[in-house]
């Protein structure tokens, strides 16, 4: 390839990419007084199935108080009516869950109990949001403001002058299926509820949330409802309650709602511990919490829009997992019994198939103390319920997605040093992972675990059995045998490394051998991975773009999911030149050079849920998150920068500015890590691939307990659309030729400096520079 042509095409593409950055219609923290929170736009991802929410939360908080407009996961920017402000939301999930206790202020008589009927109109012109705060002016003339603490949601409603200012608390409706609900008015200021719900993509084992809401002044009237029947003066009901105030004088009503997954006593205790503060004080404290969190990453350079998309992604990366234990340390375990966390915090909500690839590594880097407690929480799930989770919501397993994502999640925690020195958690994690890797949960366990493990261990692959009845609610590995095999093999490789480190050599050798199982689903006649049926025969269309047995993707999109042994994969498909040719085709590389942003939007992306029948890179979904970094292993690291920077154009400062579902911070963490130039290319291990940062300088403040230097500066002075190729790299002043770092190296560094230029260089092109295979 001629470098002059390469450069000319890239510059043309950069101009096209810049046209995609737009300003959202809704106001998001319009004041700019130097706070990093002013650079966060919570409306990003609220349209086109990004499935984020704009409401109020603090980092990792139990409560996410946010408006619900009728969309399956809560809020959609295209809607114009709000049904209520509910307590529980997860950022970017693909199916409805949460939305517990939607609360809505109204005026007049209470005649409707269906929130789709009494929903209030609103305009984005009267809406604003920033971290920890949300405000909207409703068409009814009521202003609603929301903020939050870790375990409470705080509301302030400003009514017109009226003697019929109501607050409706709807226990009977949510984003999922409610099984049973109870409402009780305790006194002239307090309402208590218990809500048992089920569902995430499909019905699951039920869970219960308890709430208590305390108002800042007495009601003048109240009532409850069952179904459509409203009973004035009633103190108990099934589906909802209303309380009324006279606002002819004082037009403002404040309320604090506490949440617990344990019991009513837990909700009351959380209210005592975190309630009793004015709305303004809660709002300011929430903003400070977010400012402190965002301040750990300081960037210089780049446009306003680039910084806004970056800090908005950083914000979303810290929204989950969520605190699950009450202020007194009690929590409901997956055995449905009450336990107490002493000296640590229990967390819940585990979208592991997504987060093990990006977000868990980002949290280990920037929030290691919380990440440690998250890993301990997952270990506790095994110890209390008998098996590790796959996709956990609240206190239950949903079994959504496939493979074995919990293994790289926990081995990552181990490799990042989070489990050392704490009550033997490393060995406890290993014992749980070994049981998970070598067995299958019994029929009476809600977990499916490695469902196809018996066949995988015996034959070396998980079979694809089309139409096989599901033994348990959720997804089945038998429906996705080819991708399940690749995911099992990846997990085995990571477990082998942990076993070796902990002094279990026989286990390490066994898991390392199983990590080569990816070869058993490689069809030499097509040169691609392919599903095999129960007899061992390859099955489904031979065309890799139309392949079957891959979860949310095709063989084209899964072909690089062998981070444990990319050299072996490259050999299978014919060597380095063949691999680079295939990569170039996969990324539509020649088109990308001509117009990166157009290629990203019109060639790569075909719709938020369009996962199949494609032979191109899908930056919207998890199987391809590592794929751009494959070029680090094929001697062409500059192409990683080309692809990554093109994919970054998909993140914009607009409601449509997410690429796919955020999946509890997964896509946001991809943006953050790729923007600063370090990315976990072997998820579950300690390898960080390198690419050109989009900022001149990034200063990371790191926890000295895990990073003795206390910080790391990553710089690429002059980086731009034209000068974006790494010419050389230096670590603490010494030349550095490899395209990756280890966590151990990161801990010893103060600076990583890239020199950039307008053309690719020889940096990182030798075989020795590539991330090594795990053996």
Task: Note down, in words, how this protein is organized.
- There is one protein chain.
- With 775 residues, the chain is α+β, with helices and mostly antiparallel strands.
- It has a domain at 63-293: Beta-galactosidase, Chain A, domain 5 (Distorted Sandwich).
- 28% of the residues lie in helices and 21% in strands.
- It has 21 helices and 35 strands.
- The strands form nine sheets. Strands 2-5-6-7-8-17-12-11-10-15 form a ten-stranded antiparallel sheet.
- Helix 8 (368-385) crosses helix 9 (406-415), helix 10 packs antiparallel against helix 12 (481-501) and helix 12 (481-501) runs antiparallel to helix 13 (505-514).
- Mean pLDDT is 94; it is low at 1-33.
Q: Main attributes?
A:
21 helices, globular, Beta-galactosidase, Chain A, domain 5, 6-stranded mixed sheet, 10-stranded antiparallel sheet, alpha+beta, 775 residues
Task: Give the SSE map.
Blueprint: H1 3-18, E1 66-68, E2 81-82, E3 84-86, E4 103-107, H2 115-118, E5 120-130, E6 133-138, E7 143-148, E8 152-158, E9 165-170, E10 177-187, E11 190-198, E12 207-215, E13 221-226, E14 229-232, E15 236-237, E16 240-245, E17 252-260, H3 264-274, H4 279-294, E18 297-300, H5 304-317, E19 322-323, E20 330-332, E21 338-340, E22 347-348, E23 350-351, H6 352-355, H7 359-366, H8 368-385, E24 391-393, E25 396-397, H9 406-415, H10 425-438, H11 453-459, H12 481-501, H13 505-514, E26 522-523, E27 528-529, H14 555-558, H15 566-572, H16 576-586, H17 589-594, H18 596-604, H19 637-648, H20 666-676, E28 678-680, E29 687-690, E30 697-701, E31 711-715, E32 725-731, E33 734-735, E34 740-742, H21 743-748, E35 751-757
